Request: fold
Amino acid sequence: MTQTANRSGDFPSHIVRKQIASILEKVHDPEIPGVSIVDLGMVLDIRPENSHWHIDLAVTYSGCPAIDVIPILAKAILAQDGFADAVVEMQIAPPWSTEWISERGNDKLLAWGIAPSNKKSAHHDFGIPKQCPQCGSTDTSLISAYGSTPCKAMYRCDVCHETFDYFKCY
Ligand SMILES: [Zn+2]
Reply:
């Protein structure tokens, strides 16, 4: 590993990598506040490159307006914490999967009233919610393939009758 010229250049790269990862914990998808891009499994790679650090982020949902905002937010937060020369690049491959969301990320989504994704099902190509975020029931019905944003679908719980957003799986 090459040493870098930024202010963390005196530290071994694995330490700086951890430092950058913890800075990225502060970057949230504007559509799902409280869940960091780290929890969403979007951070693909953090590596030293010549004189700067390079961060590859996975594109979650193409067509989501947040996709344009996230690299700008990430760069601003990295600059604030001493990595002004970091390069943030969005990568469409490998294709991001909701299975990359950490357990903590899914817990936070649930706390926000967004049902965590389930694996693909035979019923819908975007999977089915694991459970109702209100009561935990697994009996849910699709109301609309589009929820409050294009990345979500709207469901209703058959038990408590609450409607909720479901983070679609692709
Ligand atoms: Zn319910």
